[in-house]
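Hi support team,

I'm filing this because I wasn't sure whether my run with 2'-monophosphoadenosine-5'-diphosphate finished correctly. The job status page said complete, but I'd like someone to confirm that the output block is well-formed before I use it downstream. Pasting the exact inputs I used:
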Amino acid sequence: MPDAYGLFGFPVQHSWSPFIHGMFARQSGQDMSYRLFETPPERFRTDALAFFSGGGAGANVTLPHKRTAADLVNELTRRAQLADAVNTIVRRDEQLVGDNTDGAGLFADLTKNLQLHWDSPRILLLGAGGAARGAMEALLSLQPELLVIANRTVDRAIELATEFAELGPIAACEFSKLEHRRFDLIVNATSASLHGDVPLVPIDVVDSTTTCYDMAYGAGDTAFVAWAKRLGAARAEQGWGMLVEQAAEAFQLWRGVQPDTAPVLKALRQRAAMVARSPS
Ligand code: ATR
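And here is everything the job wrote out:
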């Protein structure tokens, strides 16, 4: 019997994770299965525990269960504690360890795939929810001169900035206060793209030297990527690479093998382009 892995989420049918982990497994000759568990919130705990007591070897967790998963496991890694969320569960002996690979995925995408390197960059993080929190450590690893968190509800930005204040130079503000300010990197961690919206940020934050990165991804350009391109950003990228890299980090934890992400990312982009072209 192959070792069983899976993804718990709601909704989860359109997830690319089985495709990604399937390619990793074939590439490295791992005998494993990976399936989707469409689990509404009230069933998450029971279903996840049933999966592990039935021999499940590891799992990914996505919305809306990332926080609940932190209460399910026996132990949390430091980065899961910092993110206050779990996206990967590893079975170690008879213990469940909750980890979070999102930040590592973002960092690997920015530095390895996109080859973005700066000396003391000025970084703007849009959003202050779960996705933004998960990005904090990765962005601070870029050793910014300043990391500004801006959010529609400014109190949430202030709260997040205060929590991470000891880890680097962080400020918080509302969108309107961003006028006339310059950033090397702008990361969109709001859920606005999921609804085809762009946060109401003053347009002069983007110029021909700015790199814009949307943690969301879609078949065509996300609304944020299209907005950044219209404003003449130096680069405008979306989160396909982060998706593949966070999966690679989970795969490595489960199987002890570091998968080659480049061919998987290429295949994923090709598939996404096909979906974008196909008539709806
Ligand atoms: P997630 O786990 O995806 O981060 P979340 O915790 O609900 O989800 O956070 C969503 C984030 O997107 C928040 O920062 C939210 O701003 P508020 O805190 O003001 O609600 C932000 N967001 C969602 N839709 C937005 C929009 N249309 N414009 C700007 N920000 C938006």
